[in-house]
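Final report, section 2: Outcomes. Of the targets proposed, Acyl-coenzyme A oxidase is the one most frequently requested by collaborating groups, and we therefore present its record in full.
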Amino acid sequence: MSFLNKEICDGDNPDLTEERRTATFDTDRMAQVIYGSEKFAARRRQITKSISRIPALQDTKPLAFMTREEKITEACRELDVLSDHWEQLIYVNDEEEALHLHREVIGMEGHPFALHETMFIPTLVSQASDEQQEKWLGRARKREIIGCYAQTELGHGSNLRKLETTATYSPSTQEFILHTPTITALKWWPGALGKSSNYAIVMADLVIKNKSYGPHPFIVQLRDEKTHQPLPGITVGDIGPKMAFNGADNGFLGFDHFRIPRGNLLMRHNRVEPDGSYLKPPHAKIGYSSMVKVRSRMAMDQGLFMAQALVIAVRYSAVRRQGFLEDKSQEVKVLDYQTQQHRLFPSIARVYAFIFCGLETIQLYEKLILDVNKNGDTSGMADLHSLTSGLKSVVTHFTGQGIEQARMACGGHGYSMASYISEIYGVAVAGCTYEGENMVMLLQCARALVKAVELVEEGHPEKLSPMMAYLTKPSVTVDLTVGPEAYVKIFQLIAKKQAFKATEQLHKFMVAGDSRDVAWNKSAVELTKASRLHTRLYILKTFIRRVESITDISVKAALTDLLNLHLNYELLDVASYALADGIMSSTQMDFIKNQLYSSLEKIRPNAVSLMDSFQFSDLQLRSVLGRRDGHVYQNLFEWAKSSPLNQSEVLPSVTQYLKPMMEKSKL
Ligand SMILES: CCCCCCCC(=O)SCCNC(=O)CCNC(=O)[C@H](O)C(C)(C)COP(=O)(O)OP(=O)(O)OC[C@H]1O[C@@H](n2cnc3c(N)ncnc32)[C@H](O)[C@@H]1OP(=O)(O)O
Ligand SMILES: Cc1cc2nc3c(=O)[nH]c(=O)nc-3n(C[C@H](O)[C@H](O)[C@H](O)COP(=O)(O)OP(=O)(O)OC[C@H]3O[C@@H](n4cnc5c(N)ncnc54)[C@H](O)[C@@H]3O)c2cc1C
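The predicted structure is given below as tokens.
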């Protein structure tokens, strides 16, 4: 049977087939909602089909059995095959399709073009002048050059104002001199910098006539285009193995008075004239826009990471039988246990919530870039910065938790690399650190919250942005049986109370004589709590908005169950705030718990199809445990047999050490 028809195939594990038959909605229709349009969902399936017809792209050796060098070589081989088929696989220059193609074929462990696409090209688009785009963007898009984004240094990642790499302007030669003055100024961490890239966007402190203008983006050639050797004055290399992402060559980079032409400072928004005079950008932080772009995508990307782990865990839970319920003649699917459902289903709801939210924030970023580039309008920057700062922190934290629960839900087999969950976990939790360490970004979000509270306190609520308007809402008694809007109201009250309390604490320390910075640090934990609540409220509201907009009745019904679970789970999770402030009663708490448990039962028959709807191919999942056919035991055994350790019966380590040791013991 067709892959498209709720993924039911003859020969699949009957337990999974049974799950797919009981679903109350069509997985293709659900995929349209997940991926934002019928067109893109259909294109994804088409791309998967086309990939499956290219023998050179079928998984050869499992990644788990490869060394780092082998992983990097394999990714490059796949990129080469892809480039031969590029035009028949995807629409050329379609960023989303290219991203999907790489995710499906190469996976998540990294490849030389990862930063080229996510940061190098976007920085050229947002920061390079038309003239500069003419020179580099076409070449970058055609992949004549490979670029990365080199900002973080050995000594500084979070505090960009203290980056030490300098770009000193020399008016006599009209060049910038890039220099790494200390060991801590070495660029450290940039993806694809170590061995693959021959170009980089380098963030360096712009210095003109001994005056520092702070970090600015420069385009820098690192390696000879013919020989790929580093250019004189450049030291570059790989930083070594990491917790995950071992198919990527995160790198280090140092400059020894390395000269680049004046035209290599990206000058869409600011300029350095030949005589060294400096023209300011329309917004001081416009040079940070590539980070905002990646952060705006993170709700979607992290949602998809968690989805991969949950596809594996939910399918496996429908196949794994262990223990009994009423019928003692047959063991039950572990998915029937309430604890298993409670472990997995709230994360399924979060996956959908994050993805819906991601669809919105990606659009917000695109609108912002259009406003800035076409009309010079930077008024949306502050809001998008605070929103995406909070969002990246909240989604990465919960995604890490959700993936770890998915691993545990698979028992012992979850711990095997055959499940691939540990790799997904390692890749996903890097997001807690990259694009701004989570605490640092929660505190950025808190800056906007405190400002908004201060506006309310100063009697200027009309100046609040729509996202902050809830800070003016009066306390009310809420009847939870009314539906989602009642949950939003309670959440708003909880978030508002925390924002005011944290601000009050900040002001109290300041009144007592602390500077704002010291008072801020003494209030930081409370401030981060306010940021989390504010962000979770936003996610909750986008989930409701999206479900309300769905027209397919059966899809909407299934997602309404998931939304109800999310509302009850989220509110229960923050109930301590509500109880402490008398916003909710213990009777209401009992109501929420009961709603939560009944949501688990409602979702149970749809669980497998809710995850099948993501339509990840087996190639993309890379999980022996989570394959679509559900034949986990046969698949696991075949995988274990392919382990390099099993290619001979007696290992050299036995002959060389264990045997002589045992012989010695006999004497
Ligand atoms: C495939 C895998 C992909 C992996 C990709 C990973 C790539 C990377 O990690 S690249 C490196 C990422 N690095 C980071 O994210 C660094 C994090 N640090 C920062 O962004 C900054 O240092 C930051 C924002 C914390 C502080 O910046 P700083 O210049 O010191 O500003 P700060 O003094 O705190 O704030 C000044 C004002 O600027 C505002 N501001 C800061 N950033 C922005 C922004 N991007 N847009 C708009 N306003 C901003 C603040 O809100 C603040 O406003 P206000 O005064 O009104 O409250
Ligand atoms: C997989 C991966 C890929 C990456 N890719 C790139 C890339 O392509 N290009 C690039 O330029 N960089 C990249 N990075 C670097 C990354 O962006 C930084 O590591 C990140 O921004 C965090 O900075 P840091 O390492 O300086 O952490 P630190 O700031 O040193 O964090 C250490 C601790 O200090 C705390 N802390 C720091 N400042 C404050 C503060 N003001 N208030 C409260 N607490 C604070 C943090 O919360 C954290 O607990 C990558 C990193 C990883 C892990």
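The pocket of octanoyl-coenzyme A (ligand 1) is lined by residues 114, 118, 149, 151-152, 157-161, 191, 285, 288, 291-292, 294, 381-382, 385, 434-436, 440, 444, 447 (CB under 6 Å).
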